[in-house]
C-alpha cells in the first residue's frame, strides 16, 4: 500500500473529485456522496493511494454499467431506482467489509486482511456487473435454484451474459492488486475465485431468503412504491442491501479461512 502525506493527500482529493463528479453525473445521490466520501477517506487513511485506486475502479466501472443500457433496463422494469443513483445503503452494504478489512490490515499488516479487502470489494464488483450487464441478455435469465425462466431483474436469477460478466469482473481488482504488489500471482486467482463464488452466493440468497412482494401484478423487491404489497417469499428484513452485506461478508470470511489454512 502507498502511504505518506503526499499519497494520502492525493487520495483524499481524488475521492472528493470522483465523488463529486459521480453526484453531478447522477451515479450517486446526496446520501451516497456523503457515505462515499466518508468511506473513501477511511480507505485513504488506512490503505493509502492503492486502496483508493481500487475503490475508484469499483465505483467507475460499476457506475458505468449501471447507466449503460438504462432505457432498456427501465422498459423491463428492472432498472436501478433514481436513474441509477446509489444511496448510502448501497455504499454501506457493498463497502462495509472492505472497510473493515483495510482497517485491520492497517493495524496488523497481516496480508490475510489484504486478501480479504481485495476479495470483498471484488465480490461487489462481480455482483454489480453480473446484475447490470445480465439485464441486457436477450435470452433472459433463470432462477439459480430451480433453473426456471424468470423476469429480468428477479432476485436470484442469473443469465449467461451476466455470469460471464461476473467471472470477468471478479478478476479486475485482483489484477490491480497484483500489479501493486499487494497479492501474489496465486492469490490473484484465489481472490478472484472467492469473489465470484461470493457473488453466486448473492444470487442464491436472492432466490431463497430475500423478500419478494407482489405489487400490481409484478414481483418486486422494494414494496415502498406500492399502495399494497403482499410478501410472497423470503423474510421482510432481508432486502437487497442485506444480501450484498452477507455476500461480501462471506468473501471476507473465506479470505480469513484461506489465510489460516
UniProtKB/TrEMBL annotation:
<comment type="similarity">
    <text>Belongs to the TMEM19 family.</text>
</comment>
<dbReference type="GO" id="GO:0016020">
    <property type="term" value="C:membrane"/>
</dbReference>
<keyword id="KW-0812">Transmembrane</keyword>
<protein>
    <submittedName>
        <fullName>DUF92 domain-containing protein</fullName>
    </submittedName>
</protein>
<keyword id="KW-0472">Membrane</keyword>
<keyword id="KW-1133">Transmembrane helix</keyword>
<dbReference type="InterPro" id="IPR002794">
    <property type="entry name" value="DUF92_TMEM19"/>
</dbReference>
<feature type="transmembrane region" description="Helical">
    <location>
        <begin position="157"/>
        <end position="182"/>
    </location>
</feature>
<dbReference type="Pfam" id="PF01940">
    <property type="entry name" value="DUF92"/>
</dbReference>
<feature type="transmembrane region" description="Helical">
    <location>
        <begin position="32"/>
        <end position="65"/>
    </location>
</feature>
Amino acid at each position: 500500500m502507498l502511504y505518506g502525506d503526499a499519497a494520502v493527500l492525493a487520495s483524499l482529493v481524488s475521492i472528493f473529485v470522483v465523488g463529486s463528479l459521480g453526484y453531478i453525473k447522477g451515479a450517486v445521490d446526496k446520501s451516497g456522496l456523503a457515505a462515499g466520501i466518508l468511506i473513501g477517506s477511511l480507505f485513504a487513511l488506512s490503505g493509502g493511494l492503492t486502496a483508493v485506486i481500487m475503490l475508484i475502479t469499483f465505483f467507475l466501472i460499476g457506475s458505468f454499467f449501471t447507466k449503460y443500457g438504462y432505457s432498456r433496463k427501465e422498459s423491463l422494469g428492472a432498472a436501478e431506482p433514481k436513474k441509477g443513483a446509489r444511496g448510502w445503503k448501497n455504499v454501506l452494504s457493498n463497502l462495509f467489509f472492505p472497510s473493515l478489512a483495510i482497517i485491520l490490515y492497517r493495524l496488523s499488516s497481516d496480508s490475510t486482511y489484504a486478501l480479504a479487502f481485495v476479495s470483498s470489494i471484488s465480490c461487489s464488483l462481480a455482483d454489480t456487473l453480473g446484475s447490470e450487464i445480465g439485464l441486457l441478455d436477450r435470452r433472459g435469465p433463470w432462477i439459480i435454484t430451480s433453473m426456471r425462466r424468470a423476469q429480468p431483474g428477479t432476485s436470484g436469477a442469473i443469465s449467461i451474459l451476466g455470469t460471464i460478466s461476473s467471472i470477468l469482473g471478479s478478476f479486475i481488482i485482483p489484477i490491480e492488486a497484483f500489479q501493486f504488489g499487494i497479492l501474489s500471482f496465486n492469490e490473484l486467482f484465489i481472490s478472484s475465485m472467492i469473489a465470484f463464488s461470493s457473488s453466486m452466493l448473492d444470487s442464491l440468497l436472492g432466490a431463497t431468503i430475500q423478500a419478494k412482494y407482489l405489487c400490481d401484478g409484478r414481483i418486486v423487491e422494494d414494496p415502498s412504491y406500492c399502495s399494497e404489497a403482499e410478501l410472497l417469499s423470503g423474510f421482510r428484513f432481508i432486502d437487497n442491501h442485506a444480501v450484498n452485506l452477507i455476500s461480501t461478508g462471506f468473501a471476507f470470511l473465506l479470505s480469513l479461512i484461506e489465510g489460516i489454512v
